[in-house]
Amino acid sequence: MTRKAPAATQARADRETALRLAHKTFVARQRVEVNDLATALGVNRVTVYRWLGDRDAILAEVVWRLGERTMLDAYAAATGAGGPRIAAAMSTFVRQTLAHQGMRHFLSTETETALRVLTRSEQTFQPRLVALVETLLSREHDAGALSTADIDLHDLAYLCVRVGESFVYTDAITGEPPDPDRAERALHYLLR
Known about the structure:
By secondary structure, the chain is mainly α. It contains 11 helices and no strands. Helix 6 packs across helix 7. The N terminus is likely disordered. It comes from Amycolatopsis ultiminotia.
């Protein structure tokens, strides 16, 4: 008698399937592990590494996909224009990041890994978030709603992201509880 193959067989498993499984695992507040992904997909761990990279790269990609959608939705829903619109979008992004069960679990149970994945430039999350915020700032600037004569758009985007991070990761950095209200005030001050 032939043994039944896992639901996601090797013939159907690919990079996107692996990312969807990693996302589902993360959102369920479970630890994302290369071996577990490989087993569930019916492939070996080398295949998962080839598709997605190491564990940090997988986590960065999962969090990026969540973060990108959150930021774009927050920007689309933000009212006003220019700096206030970006500040509102970033504030919503911070609030939704703090409210996301998977992110809270990741930040609280794997603090060092989370900070490494989310804030180091060799990972892909932060540079992509800075680039996205820069794109949104550029939209507002091109529409004439944002004056940036005193600062480069990339530098301003970086500052916005770092301010948001400061209040999302504050418990890991200073031991204080995360505070989206403080982030909102700081972002509105920066982008006034």
